[in-house]
Amino acid sequence: MKRIGTFSALLILASALLAGCGSESVAQPPDEVTVQLSWTHSAQYAGFYAADQRGYYAEEGLAAIFLPASGAGADTITPVADGTADFGVNFGAGLISARSQGLPVTAIAAIYRRYPLVFITLADSGLRRPQDFPGHTIRTLVPGGSAVAFEAMMTRLGLDPQSVEQVEVGFDLDSFFGGEPDIWPGYITNEVLTAREEGYAVNQILPEDYGVHLYGDVLFTSDQMIEEAPDLVERFLRATLRGWRWAIENPEEAGPLALAYDPTLDVEHLVAQMETSVPLIHTGEGQIGWMQDEVWEGMQEMLLEQAILDAPIDPGSVYSMEFLERIYAGQP
Amino acid sequence: MKLSTRLPALFLAIALIPLAVVGYLAFDSGRQSIEQDTFNHLISTTILKESEFERWVQDNERYLRALASRPDLMEKAAMLASLDPASPAYQAAHRDMLQNHFAPALEEEAGYDDLFLLRASDGLILASTDETREGKYRESEPFFVEGRSRTYTGNVDYSLSEGATVMHVSTPVSDAHGDLVAVLVGHADLMEMSDIMLLRSGLSASEETYLVNSFNFFVTDPEVGAGLALRSAVYTEGVNDCLAHNSSVGLYEDYMGVPVIGAYRWMAERELCILTEVDQTEAFAPVTALGNTILGIGVSVSLLAALAGLFSARTITKPVDELIEGTQEVATGNLDYRIALVRCDELGQLSQSFDRMTHDLKTVMASRDDLEREVLQREQAERALARKAEELARSNRELEQFAYVASHDLQEPLRMITSYLQLIERRHKGKLDAESDEFIAFAVDGANRLSQLINDLLSFSRVSTRGKPPEPVDCSAVLGQVRANLAALFEETHALMTNDELPTVMADAGQLTQVFQNLVGNAIKFRGAEPPRVHVSARQEGDEWIFSVRDNGIGIDPQYHERIFVLFQRLNPRHEYPGTGIGLAIAKRIVERHGGRIWVESEPGKGSTFHFSIPIKMR
């Protein structure tokens, strides 16, 4: 990124010198930005797609490239920290862990302000609450992600997280529908919909119901970007939020935008996914992307409880309201 | 543009512009007043609905408080909050709570469709009309946090746990000692709220009132979009402005894309937006009707105006067209054409005047033609005359040339004849017979006379060929010169010449001398018995001098007064008065060359007076 910036600056300088005047009208090539997604292409990133396909990025002089995550549990923070990608998407708790480990990354907006994590059990399994979990099996939890929420939920209820056996079954829901494992960690915006589409009745056990409040998808970037190209960060965030605004206002159109990046996706699923995610994004608690101190503090507390964090860190170092405040002119 | 087009257009404009202005003003003010009325109505509707909504909320709160203050409920709540869930007492209390309190409350339709009890210490759901909810925690929810200390009505918002949009009402529950043990929570029956909103407040069919929560979801069903409540988000101009915490009115498109007039109020305490909207087509129907009426009137008036314009244009332009046609006909030369418009107005007068003018023109044209013809003839005559004059001048010139050439060239052979005849006479005089001498003498005499004639002719022709340009000549000096030239004659005849004072005139001095010399010479030559007396006088007459030479000679018969001026004409025998008869001819020619005339007054025996004139200014 930095290289590209310097190179284009040199190009502009050279062409200006050749032209013999400091012409400002030389068409600048858009700044190329890469975005590391937290999962494979889906309606979960509809706002980014909308900003890309509806030209909001172009209007800000940007061209975005989206990098889907290689798989569940893939590290999507390091690529941003080391400059491979300019921006990344991750769940909030993961970002706190990364920060505590010294990765120079900072959240600039919360996209999913409710954690859509849900533990699904088949309706006839009789597993309707966490208290029913001990002695049963659960699909492998993602460390730092679903694992955090699961452990927090179990601990809060006085249950031993270890009493539930984690089994490695991959990510194909068919084995769950076949009865293995008993509990499936998923998203209400994805697996719940799939189960419904497949015709299975399921129980949903939400960590939210048991005092676990986390930010879902959070948009972040590296400290270096914020320091060296704050203008580019602001432009990218402004265009992205505009994309999300359009996406939640037009869920039926926004969902299928993912098809441009992965044509194998199912249109109806994408639309349902988008519609379900609207309340996560637009919660009625302030502007899209807005973040609250309490949630960040709560998340840190949870991580401390689980000894994922050795010592508390300054929550203010994990996220920055600077760009949201500038874009929304200070209006929460 | 032609008059026949311009006039109707003018009429149309005169009729339409005020109509359009008045019509527009009427329409606009009508629209504005309707808009204002509608705004006012909608605002009052939203205020009314809001107060009904608030009353509903208060009713709900009152009911919940009443429920929470039931001693039995308080007792059971305290038991649930403190006992082990596995204990039989807990189970009994739980059953009583649901059967004796919650279930009847729902059946009463007291405004709740769900009730549950939270443990005051940690937000655990102890008992719920929805069994699946039990065991879950609501420790961070505002209805729990707030409900521990007071009766609280929450926002209508989306609950991830419930998977729905709900409105929580909560109130604290204490035990017999007044210690807080639980929080009683109810889900308000949003259908009742919808009914309040749907109850129509006015007569207009399209009017509807609905609630939208702070994340743009319909909280109550709008009239048209039934089933939208809690499932669909709405992003109209009105909703967006309202959710920016504004209360106002506006014209915008509603959730169906239909243009509406809307009033909206931001209910800050509930974080809800209440909107009342009415379709613009319905609201503006009266003003649309007014507009149509105005349009109808406009069309009729413009038709009438156009017809009136067309008619008056025809009454004006038709005679004008006839006039134009007439003038064009006359312009092509048809002066017999008469327009003859039978009208009493200005156009009739114009037509009459034009006809009269055409008539006059015809007369004038006829005289003009005569005049032209005459001018033409005169020009022809003048041209002929000029041609004649030219011919005359040429022949005159040729004649003069001929005379000069002839007289000059004739001299030479004549001199030879004369020389030889004189030689013969000298050598042979007296040697031949007397008859021959006489013949030779005749021949010599003839030759001399011929020589004299030729000399005279030459001098006659020289009058014009050798003439000098005029210069001031003193006539007294001229006369003195004449006297000197003729001194011998004066002496021989004892002639006496007197003269008056003579002027200076513009003339060829030599030629004027010759004129006087010829006249004075003649006066002396043709003398009577008396010694000759000559008197020369001059007088000014008009623009010329008249000179007179009077003598007391033999006089001239008037019948010869013209003839004497002709070349070589003699009245008297040569032997009595010698001369060739050239003198007067030369005098006449000189005088005429100077632009004057010469004439004589005379009778035989009474002397003669010769007059000639010289113009004072030579032309």
Properties at a glance:
heterodimer; A: three-stranded antiparallel sheet; 14 helices; 10 strands; 15% strand; globular; disordered N terminus; B: 619 residues; alpha+beta; five-stranded mixed sheet
Strand neighbour order, sheet with most strands of chain B: 2-1-5-4-3
Terminal CA distance of chain A reads 31 Å
Strand runs of chain A, count: 10
In percent terms, what proportion of residues of chain B is strand?
A: 15-25%
Q: Report on the biggest sheet of chain B.
A: 5 strands, antiparallel
Order of helical and strand elements of chain B: HHHEEHEEEHEHEEEHHHHEHHEEHEEHEE
Tell me about the biggest sheet of chain A?
5 strands, mixed
Over all CA atoms, what is the radius of gyration of chain A?
21 Å
The quaternary state of the protein chains shown equals heterodimer
Structural class of chain A: alpha/beta
Number of helices of chain B: 14
Question: Which class best fits the helix and strand makeup of chain B?
Answer: alpha+beta
What is the helix fraction of residues of chain A, given as a range?
25-40%
Shape of chain B: rod-shaped
Number of separate strands of chain B? 16
Would you tell me the overall average pLDDT of chain B?
85
Biggest interface pair, counts: A-B, 21 and 21 residues
Low-confidence stretches of chain A are 1-25
**Strand portion of chain A:** 5-15%
